[in-house]
Amino acid sequence: MTADSETGAAAPKRACLHGWTKRQKCVLYFTIVLAVVTVAHIAVFIYVMVTRDTSEKTCLTKKCTMTAASLISAMDPSANPCEDFNKFTCADFIRKNPIPDGKVRTTTFLQYEDTFKLQIKDLIENHNSIGDPSVVSQAQEAYHVCINTTYHKKEELDSFKKYLQDTFGGWPVVEVKNWKQKSIEELLGQSEKLFGLSFLDIDIKNYPDDTSSYEVAIQALTSEARILNETDDEDNDEIREDEKLRFKAFDKFASLLDEGSDKKSAVGRTIDFRKMEDLKMKLVKPLDKNTTDSTVVMSVKELNSTQNKVNWFKILNILFESIHIFEGKETVVLKDPDKLNHVFDILKESPLSTVTNLIIWEVVLKQLMSNAGPEAEEIYEEYVNEVNKDRPFYLLSPKQHRWEKCLAWLEHIYPMVAARLFINKYVDKENKAAAEELVQLIQQSYKEEIEESKWLDEETKKRAILKVDSIRRFVGYPDFIFDDKELENEYKDVPIVKPTHFQNFLENQMIRYEKYREKYKIPDKESGDRWQSSPMEINAFYDPETNSIWFPAGILQLPFFDWKRLAAINFGMIGAIIGHEIGHAFDNYGSRYDEKGNLINWWTNQTREIFDQKAECFIKQYSKYCPEDRQAEEYKCVNGTRTVGENLADSTGLKAAYEAYQLWTGKHGKEKRLPGLEEYSPEQLFFISYSYLWCENMPSDKWTIYEMDSHSPMKYRAIGVLSNYEEFRKNFNCTAKGTMNRDSDSCVVW
């Protein structure tokens, strides 16, 4: 024990560096500082290397980030992709996107459509057209006239009355003294001329085996009239209710037009309506005798002598006025001559006033009332709402604002003007070239699939590949819309804008049908090389009669496509749509047309039989699909037979898109991943984006809208295709047979 201890005093603490020399201390300090700096440098190096590695593997551009956010927002990663891929990719989309008021569903397509319409509306209403070709301001003026019908409702209605007077001698229901009787030929000719509708269906059609030539085809009645042919006893109550609603609208509209001193009484209008309904029921009633549908080819002269209840020269020359004068030697195709004779027997024995009333009500008013001013439009909409309130397809047509109707009409009349404005403001011009590359690669993948097919014989393979090579492509928009002179020339026949929307609608309707009939006189050899659809469509098309595909600018936008994001996403979305449309060239309908669009059997009997067996596999597969909460009911959610063409196109289209993506990566190299979705390979993102395309929130009790649809419900468009596809199973390691792995039961075409 030390002295200090003994005295109890605390010994002073010795400094930790006590006894170190100054030099030793400096060395220590330097060593510590060096160590800290070294660690810091290592940390920075690791951070740089990690972030560089991440950025090299992850696409962090704005478009990639936006795409990732959309996919993540829709997905439920806790769901097993091998059990229900729709739930995996769309469960959160359904939870986060409630169905808007007035609608029965929401989808990725409908969400984009709402935004798209608002963009076009803003352009038409606010675009400064100074410096543009005059047709741009003309389109804007036509839109504003359409919008402002409320301020000119008397003028709108007067325009409508004048049309009835000039064309049909007036409407007998409201014209007691002033109705000027027209012949049956004038009534039918004028009705067909403006609407393509009457008690006849007179059309111009391609020769089935030579699509460069046209013929006049005639048959009795139209789909418009046949809709009313419900005569089963079990439907009598519904028929009577519909009749009451028709009379209600009939009476209201007659009252709106009937303002003269010789105003017809309510009793008189009731009698007119009853006669009209009786005539209609006679026309749609099936023939008493047993007849079979037949088609007869004859000259107009023979038509006029065999179907001699009317003067066919007069009807055809009214219809083709200024285009062609029929002299008798021209060929016509007559379908079901017995039915046509039956119709004219009834018409000839009926008072012309009743025939006129029926044509005006069933054809003219149903086509024109919604464009004859706000009062007429209100009557028509009330009638349509009441008649169709419980009918499935009507659920897809919610009430539109006036601007939506006017915008739809404008895009119909001036599609290239609307496209020019939209593309200039919203479309990246690089999208068109990038989309062209996708189309070409998908065509190439189709050809490779066909070439590798084990069941096609060599001759059929050659014809199928020739058909793919011969497809005409229309991608994005025609370039002429940016040439002022060419755009003006496109609309040289469109009349100047009139003070009332009814006049504008009527005149443009007349020009539209006249241009359609012009191809009879001068078959348009170049029509297959011109845009036949609006670039503003949010859709895509295939036409078997011209072997052409259209992918308008309207659908070449986010969320479906953008050249600045991952190609995997583009191929999974727009690529699958492109593949789908090309697939229609080989579905159960399109496969009957050859590379020129002629209706010719280019398959051998054996390959056609195998194809039909493959199609039957899809029919059986999709016919079994139904939501769990409806499986106990006697209800078929998907009609496999009705939807087989679309399901075939979905199947071949997705496979072609995936294989085209493999061609793309072979050319451009492997792609990065998406932020927040780094665990998924580009190939997996391809399938995730495909399923996202078909996300749909719709209660299963509203699935009746699909009863008459040629498409399957969106959920089954996704899982139906993917469950058949081996590459999907490989990428998600779905080894066990189940919902997403049909294994040996898989339906395939190529």
From TrEMBL:
Q: Which GO terms describe its cellular component?
A: plasma membrane
Q: Keywords on this record?
A: Hydrolase, Membrane, Metal-binding, Metalloprotease, Protease, Transmembrane, Transmembrane helix, Zinc
Question: What GO molecular function terms would the record report?
Answer: metal ion binding; metalloendopeptidase activity
All copies of domain Peptidase M13 C-terminal, residue ranges: 539-745
Q: Where are the transmembrane segments?
A: 27-50
Q: Name one GO biological process term.
A: protein processing
Give residue ranges for domain Peptidase M13 N-terminal: 81-478
Q: Which organism is it from?
A: Hemiscolopendra marginata
Answer whether the UniProt record assigns the keyword Lyase to this protein.
Answer: no
Q: What is this protein called?
A: Neprilysin
Family as reported in the entry's similarity comment: Belongs to the peptidase M13 family.
The protein's required cofactors: Zn(2+)
Enumerate the Pfam families for this protein: Peptidase_M13, Peptidase_M13_N
